Amino acid sequence: MKVDLFTKVCLLFIAIFLGIIALYPFFTPEIAHGAPFSEQKLDYIEPIGMTFALGVLLDTRNGDIWAYDLDNLSAQYCGRLEELGKPLFREPR
Questions:
Q1: What b-and-e string marks burial along 53-87, b requiring 16 or more CB atoms within 10 Å of the CB?
Q2: Which residues lie below 8 Å from residue 90, measured CB to CB, with a gap of 6+?
Q3: What share of the chain is helix, strand, coil (3-state, %, to 5)?
Q4: What are phi and psi of 38, to 5 degrees?
């Protein structure tokens, strides 16, 4: 049986495309997924204010308000929100 040029070209393209399919996982980066608990760990934190270098966050579990200095990477306890319209309650820490 004599194999003509058309058959050789078709077999060559099939071999090339099968090689591409086989090598595809080696050249594509794997998607990194975060740990599921990391998303749920801070779901009770709400940002309530932001300035140039200061972020203010509210802990909705207990009403604590924290100010974070983004330049120095430090935190400062501001007080507890007991009720809307009343001043912050600041307990010693």
A1: eeebbbeeeeebbeebeeeeeeeeeeeebeeeeee
A2: 77, 78, 79, 80
A3: 30, 30, 40
A4: -70, -30
**What is the pTM assigned to this prediction?**
0.48
Instruction: Identify the three-state secondary structure at position 51.
Output: coil
In tens, the pLDDT along 10-65 reads 999 999 999 999 998 888 777 776 666 555 677 788 888 887 778 888 888 888 88
Within 13 Å of residue 14, how many CA atoms lie on the same side as its CB? 6
Q: Show Cβ contacts of residue 55 under 8 Å, excluding neighbours closer than 6 positions.
A: 47, 49, 67, 68, 70
Strand duo 54-59 + 64-69: pairing: antiparallel
For the chain, the domains span 36-80
Please choose, from the candidates 50, 53, 51, 59, the residue with its C-alpha nearest in 3D space to the C-alpha of residue 77.
59
